Amino acid sequence: MLRNLALGLYLVASPVLAQDKAFTLQAPQALTESGFLQHLLPRFSLKTGVRITVDPDAGDVVLGADGTPVFRDPDRIWHLSDATDPDVAPFLDWLVSDVGKRTIEGFTADDASFFSADVGTAAVVVATPVTGDVVLGEQASLGKCGRCHVVNESNKMNAIGSTPSFALMRNFEDWEGRFQTFFLLKPHGAFTQVADVTDPFPDNLPSPISPIEVTLDEIDAIVAYVATIAPADLGAPVEIQ
Description:
alpha/beta
């Protein structure tokens, strides 16, 4: 309350502010108590002559979840809502300007809270739920893939050392897609048959090695099983001095 009062008195008393340029900003009490608005608003007002009164309950424009993103704190992105008051437009323009961004990021607080002008949002990746029979997946993995790849400790000594293990491949960002379509990837296409999906090998060009026959249900089960495998620890990246 004292901070609100002090802020209001400061803005009212400032001789450079034109009294006919003003609006009320609705902002949560917690945001006001952070000290951030006391840092931000006077600097805008001194620059533009627009007086801003802060009210936690109502206002001509709202700092909240809707509108144009203007700054962020560690917990959320703050938006400035749309408004019909013509004095609000300079405030929005200032917030997204270089000067406004520097002012936002120039705030410091004793509790180490911070605000950033970077309101870019990363794309949200929604993981597709992995379904399938995990037990069948382990059996199929060992039976169909275990002659080349280390599936788990049970076939560690029987696989080909030059082929990547399942745990290593779990580090690939696209591991799920790779396992779902492995029969299309080299060299698997030369010796893999998927029931009702791939064409039979030509009679005059038999597979050079014993073919692997697998069903779509088994592939789903393999993917479900691989999802339970922890990615191999590859260690820290090598730093080149």
